[in-house]
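Input record, target 12 of the design panel.
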């Protein structure tokens, strides 16, 4: 990757804005706002870009939501299936991480997503729970629903418990 300077980035922005539609500008503004907020958290760039927000964590269950906007649409103007899978994987993985001792974390070893209906509306919510928590593996399940409470997808995930890197 070439060395980027503030000037080269500013030039890119100016060139983009010259031909950008109003929707393009809204999306760019949203991306920049989310990236600015990312600077204050330890989350990933991806979770910042799609604005993942933890809503609740209780009774070994975790809920994360994302707003639905054009940046996560596929060419059919519905939520891209990979975004739905990412929401499920992130919710299950975050839950497992929160349940582990401080010196451990977990990584996905298996993810299975069953799509029920298109992701539409104002937001998607994913609720994850643990079905098995062992010393080496955690098995989870998740449900993704739209803003009307309609089931969009279900998912199952297996996570390998590992030591945190120092």
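The sequence produced for target 12 reads:
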């Amino acid at each position: 990757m070439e060395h980027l300077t503030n000037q080269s980035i500013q030039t890119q922005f100016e060139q983009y804005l010259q031909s950008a539609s109003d929707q393009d500008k809204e999306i760019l503004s949203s991306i920049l706002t989310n990236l600015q907020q990312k600077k204050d958290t330890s989350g990933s760039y991806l979770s910042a870009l799609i604005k993942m927000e933890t809503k609740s964590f209780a009774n070994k269950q975790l809920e994360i939501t994302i707003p639905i906007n054009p940046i996560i649409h596929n060419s059919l103007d519905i939520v891209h299936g990979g975004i739905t899978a990412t929401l499920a994987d992130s919710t299950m993985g975050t839950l497992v991480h929160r349940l582990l001792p401080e010196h451990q974390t977990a990584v996905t070893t298996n993810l299975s997503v069953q799509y029920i209906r298109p992701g539409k509306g104002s937001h998607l919510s994913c609720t994850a729970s643990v079905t098995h928590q062992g010393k080496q593996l955690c098995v989870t399940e998740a449900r993704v629903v739209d803003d009307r409470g309609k089931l969009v997808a279900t998912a199952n995930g297996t996570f390998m418990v590992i030591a945190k890197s120092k």
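The radius of gyration is 18 Å.
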